[in-house]
Every structure is written in structure tokens, then in C-alpha cells.
Specification:
- By secondary structure, the protein is mainly α.
- The protein is built from 11 helices and no strands.
- α2 runs antiparallel to α10 and α6 runs parallel beside α9.
């Protein structure tokens, strides 16, 4: 459903986008950036949730997010995740070229992929579905992504549609992980993951607002590191 809403929204966005002025398309992108920033801040503030503080101590949550971002960023940089993702977008541009500039296609692909796949709903919704708790969160995310993809595609074109493949792979993988793990992920670990994802979304917002080209994709390993750091601190405390 999420892939379908992204594709439909992208088609509508491309059709509408040709009728909008460059200034209007820039304004649409800025509006998405501001809303992304709002969502990011709301998610990042969950670092103060009681479940995480009780598990690791009141002073540790922020340090966990910081450590996850630093360690994850180093790992992602060494793996060149951002460069590989952009390279994949460039390959798709050459393969399915419809007359758009490569930079525009890649920026749309990367930005949309990050917005659709970094948010807490991506991981929490997919894990919940895999754990058999229902797909309500994923349905909500699908609707939000559908509307977002309209605005994105109006500014960036077909690169946004290509991000549907990333949505399929990432959310499909996370759902499979949830099905394999069962109900074993404690609330504190989920909270740390969500807070870290929120901080990463701030980087996406900065990209959309053209304030700073943060290599957000290189930070993706932080989403794995954060729960591991929580578990490490819990083990030390016990």
C-alpha cells in the first residue's frame, strides 16, 4: 500500500508540477522541509521518555543518541552509503531518462527515500506488522507518504517515484525482521531508535531547506547502533 501511494502521488505530482512556476515548486519544497523539521523535532524529543530514562539512567539517553550518531556516521562513511545511494539514483536516471537533469532526479530520489524511510513510523510500523500487532501505523504512513510524494514530485520529478523501490526494500526487510524476532524488542530500545531517527530527520529537513547538505544516508547505521548502546548500558548497570 505504501509503495502504491508513493507511485500514485508521484504521477500526480509530475502532472501538476509542469503547471507550477519554479517559485511555487521551491515554496512547496520549503513547506515540506519545515513540516519535516516539525516531525523530526517531535521524534527527537522522545529521547526524554520515561521508558528509556528508567532503563539507562536520566543522563544517558542524549549520550546514547550522540554515540549512535557518531559511531553510525563513521560506519556509514566508511561504507559510503550516501555515495552508493546517489550512484544508484544516477544509474536509474540514465536507465529511465525522461529529459530531467541528473542532479534533480538524484536529489528527488535521495531526499524522498530518506523522508519515507528514516522516520520512526517506518521502523515501528514495519516491526509492528511483522510482530503481528497490525499494520495501522503503516497505513497511516502510506497516506502521509502519498500526499508528501505529490509535493515532492512537483518539485523533483520522477526521482520521487524511484524511491518507492527503497520503501519496498526497507519496510519489507523490517517487517521480515519483526516476524523473525518476535516480540523481543523492549520499549527502551524502540525509544532510542525513534529519537535517533528524529535527529537524522533534522538533517533531511536541512537538505530540503537548502541550509546544509547533510549526508543523512551515511548516518543510517546509527539506527542499529542506538538499541545496541541501550543494551550495553543496561548490562553495565545490572
Amino acid at each position: 500500500m505504501n509503495v502504491a501511494t508513493v507511485l500514485v502521488g508521484s504521477v500526480l505530482g509530475v502532472l501538476v508540477g509542469h503547471r507550477l512556476s519554479h517559485r511555487t515548486r521551491d515554496l512547496v519544497t520549503d513547506a515540506i522541509g519545515l513540516v519535516t523539521l516539525l516531525i523530526a523535532i517531535s521524534s527527537a524529543l522522545t529521547v526524554g521518555d520515561k521508558a528509556l530514562s528508567d532503563a539507562v539512567g536520566s543522563s544517558a539517553p542524549v549520550l546514547i543518541v550522540l554515540g549512535a550518531m557518531l559511531i553510525g556516521g563513521i560506519i556509514g562513511s566508511l561504507l559510503r552509503i550516501e555515495q552508493r545511494l546517489e550512484g544508484f539514483g544516477a544509474w536509474m536516471q540514465h536507465r529511465f531518462d525522461r529529459g530531467e537533469g541528473e542532479g534533480k532526479f538524484v536529489e528527488g530520489f535521495v531526499s524522498a527515500s530518506m523522508v519515507f524511510c528514516v522516520g520512526p513510523l517506518t521502523f515501528l510500523g514495519a516491526l509492528s506488522d511483522g510482530l503481528g500487532r497490525g499494520a495501522d501505523q503503516l497505513f497511516l504512513k502510506a497516506v502521509l507518504d502519498g500526499f508528501t510524494s505529490i509535493a515532492f514530485a512537483a518539485s523533483f520529478g520522477w526521482g520521487v517515484a524511484a524511491s518507492a523501490l527503497v520503501v519496498l526494500v526497507v519496510q519489507g526487510s523490517m517487517t521480515a525482521v519483526g516476524a523473525l524476532l518476535g516480540d523481543v524488542l523492549p520499549e527502551a530500545h524502540v525509544t532510542a531508535l525513534g529519537a535517533t531517527g528524529g535527529v537524522m530527520l533534522i538533517g533531511v529537513a536541512l537538505r530540503l531547506l537548502k541550509l546544509k547538505q547533510v549526508a543523512v544516508a551515511d548516518l543510517l547505521p546509527a539506527l542499529i547502533v542506538a538499541p545496541l548502546l541501550v543494551q550495553l548500558l543496561i548490562a553495565i548497570r545490572n
